[in-house]
Structures are given as C-alpha cells and as structure tokens.
Amino acid sequence: MKWIELIQVAGATLVAAVTVVVLYSVGVRFTAIAGDPEQATPRWMKSLAYVCFGLCGLAVLFGLYLIIPYFSK
Amino acid sequence: MVALVIALALFFDFTNGFHDTANAMATPIATGAIKPKTAVALAAVLNLVGAFLSTEVAKTVSGGIIKEGSDGIQITPDIIFAGLMGAILWNMITWLKGLPSSSSHALFGGLIGAAIAGIGIHSVNFESLMQKVILPAIFAPLIAAGVAYICTRLAYALTSRHDPETGSKLTQKRGGFRTGQIFTSSLVALAHGTNDAQKTMGIITLVLIAAGTQQPGSGPQFWVIAACAFAIAIGTYAGGWRIIRTMGSGLTDVKPAQGFAAESSTASAILASSHLGFALSTTQVASGSVIGSGLGRKGTSVRWGTAGRIAIGWLFTLPAAGIVGALTALLVKTGVVGVLIAAVAGTSAVLFMFFQSRKSHVGHHNAVEVEEAGQAVRFRKKKAMAASRANKSKGVQ
C-alpha cells in the first residue's frame, strides 16, 4: 500500500495551502488596518501588506515551478 | 477504427473539459469574483496552456490497471473504443444531473468494463485498481476537506477584527480575498489542464501504438497534444453550468475568504499529488474542499443531501461506466456491424441527453442565473436565498 505517499500528499497539501492562506490573510488584514480612516496608521503597514502578498505570490510561483516538468527536470 | 477512436477520445476530452470547469470556477463565480463568461474563458485558456506545459505522465494512463505489455494482454483499439463510450455516456448523465463526478474514474471504469467483457476478468489488475483508484477516491475528499477546513478557520481568525466600527472595512477585506480568488482558481484550472488533458493524449497515443503507426514507448506526437489541448479548452469554455451551480451554491454558501481557502486547498492538493505521484481526482478534491470550507465558517451549513447525492454518484461512476463499456465491448466483438450499432447508439444517447437538457430549460448556458446565485450569497438574507434555491433545485430535477 502507498500509505507513505498518502501521508506525504496530505502533509504537502496542508503545508502549501496553509502557507498561502495565512500569508494572504495577514496581507488582507494589514491592508484593512492601513485603510483605517480615523487613526493615523504608520505607512509601513501598507508596505507590510504588500510584502505579504508578494510572499504569497512567490509561494504560488514556487508551486508552479514544481509542477511544470520543463523547469524541475 | 483508429480514426473513430481518436474522434471519440477527443469528444471525451471535450466532456472532461466542460464537466470539470466547475472545479476551478464554481466558487469564484458564486462569490462574484469573476463574471461567469470571463471565468470559463479564463479556465479554457489556462487549460490550454496547462495541456501544453506537461506531457510527462501522458503514457501512464491506464497505469497498470489493465495488464498490458509483452507478458500481459494487448489492449486493442476495440477495447479503448468501448471504454471511451462508457466514460462519455457516464459523463453526460452526471452532467445532466448536475453532479460533479470524476472524469478519470469514468474513463477507468469504462476501460475496466470493456476489458472484462472483451478479454476476461483476468485482464484486470485488482491490486493496482485498489491502490490507484479506490483508496485515493476515499482519501482525496477527506484530505481536501480537512485542509480546507483548517484554512477557512485560519483565514477568518486572521482577518476578524474586534472593532465596533468595522462595517466599512468588511467590504475591503472581502475585496482582497475576491482578488485572491482570481489567482487561486486560475491555479486550479492550470493544474487541471496539466492533469486531465494528458489522459486523452495517453489514450490516443495508446491507440496509435496499437495500430502500429507509432513506435512503442514514444511520447505523444505534437498534433495529439495540440488536438487534446484544444478539445479540453473548448469543452471548458462550453462550461458545465449545471455542475457549476451544484458546486458553487448547492453544497454550501460560499464567501470570498472561504472560496479562497477552498481553492488554495484544491490547488495544493492537486499539485502535491501530481508531483508526488499519488494521483487524486481533481473533482473529488474540489468537492471535498468546498464542503470543508463550508464546515470551517461559522454560521454556514453544509447541505448534506447534495453532498450525499454527489457521493452516491461517485460510488456508481466505476460500475456504471464499466457496464456501458462492457456492453459496447460485447457489441464491438461481433464485428463491423456491432461497431456501427455501438457508434449510432452512443451518438443518439448523447444527443438525447443534450436535448433533454435543453427541454428542462435550467440553461447550462444560462450564466445569469449563476450570477444571481452569486449575488444572493453576498447580499440577500438567508431565507430569501433558501427559497430561491428551492425553486432552482426543483427546476433542475
């Protein structure tokens, strides 16, 4: 039986999905904080949000890099 | 016979495409992240690209389920013809019922049935069947649901803000996830192209090898890749609206953050499994993710009735496609007349189902209703939505 593969797939799925979702959610949250109208929020909040989105994008690109055999060969 | 099988294989690719549009595009359509027409166009393009990107596993289609090769049984075009017939008919039936079912299972079922009827029960490798089809079928939805549940929880926990005046910011949050959905669903569509188009390429290559027009052990030829890529893209663009409705609003009410979590899980699961060599069905992963994300968000209910109907559809996929495949194989065995009868019967069955779908007017092509469902999820109160859904499901039945 391929139990090892099964666990590997489950683990990889969990790690990949959680990475993307956490990064994106944190980015969304920072965007929301930066958009607060009343209190003056530091400018780095906004940049931090973009950093999160960027990292999330990188994670996705890394995933693509893995599935396309042309690159990973 | 070879030309007939190739035509049939391309048609199977087409049904595969429109059957599986829902996997990638049901949740973004339901949340209104992408307009329905744009969504299917995007999915079609990405499927096309995906089909060209990877052809590595194209020749491992039947994957040892039917014993082939020098010491085993030679698969003939007849068997493949019968198997494809079973797969196509089952895809059409499930589409008519709006059930997301695995196209690859239909293909396996059809081929297994055809092999049993055409060659004998000894031609099927049951251990391989268990490992490659049955076990993944049980675990794919479970893994996807579990991961989607955790992701949905995380997404909501991380973005929930305990400020009394968050009313205006709520829209902002969702806007962010809606944009994200465009990317995650694109990823699912791309992954689908790299996975599913290859099955048909493998089938056609198998036929060409069996007919002696191609060297054994060589990869798919370029025209085969191109034809399959376009067949699946056109199929995707045709859009299985019935299945999109089931996945997008039939299982649970999808919100952007939830859809984002579900699609991330689906994409990760498909990519992880195809990379690590434990093939999971795209459809089953996507359905599992939607259910899992429904469980993860507070205040949502999963409609287990619909989920149950889908699960029953999965149970029947292998045997049903197998029976059609077996019957076709028996017909084909009788000779040219049998092939003709099978081809005519198959075509008329497909046409019959197509007209049947037209008659019940729920409009697989009717994008507006799907869009309305998306708006309902966003704006309307639960009661109004339940009522409208009840009407719709009455229409579908």
Topology:
The complex is a heterodimer of chains A (73) and B (397).
Chain A: H1 3-34, H2 43-67, H3 69-72
Helix pairs in contact in A: 1-2
Chain B: H1 2-31, H2 36-53, H3 77-97, H4 103-118, H5 126-159, H6 167-210, H7 222-238, H8 241-250, H9 256-276, H10 282-296, H11 304-333, H12 336-359, H13 367-379, H14 382-396
Helix pairs in contact in B: 1-2, 1-3, 1-6, 1-7, 1-8, 1-9, 1-10, 2-6, 2-7, 3-4, 3-11, 3-12, 4-11, 5-9, 5-10, 6-7, 6-9, 8-13, 9-10, 11-12
Short description:
The complex is a heterodimer of chains A (73) and B (397). With 73 residues, chain A is mainly α.
Description:
The complex is a heterodimer of chains A (73) and B (397). Chain A has 73 residues and is mostly helical. Chain A has one domain (3-72). Helix content of chain A is 84%, strand content 0%. Chain A is built from three helices and no strands. In chain A, helix 1 (3-34) runs antiparallel to helix 2. The longest helix of chain A is centred in the N-terminal third of the chain and has 32 residues, at 3-34. The model of chain A has no long low-confidence stretch (mean pLDDT 76). In chain B, helix 2 crosses helix 6. Chain B has helices at residues 2-31, 36-53, 77-97, 103-118, 126-159, 167-210, 222-238, 241-250, 256-276, 282-296, 304-333, 336-359, 367-379, 382-396. The longest helix of chain B has 44 residues, at 167-210. Chain B is elongated. Chain B has one domain. Chain B has 397 residues and is mainly alpha-helical. Residues 166-172, 361-389 and 392-397 of chain B have low confidence and may be disordered. Chain B is built from 14 helices and no strands. The interface between A and B is large, with 38 and 48 residues.
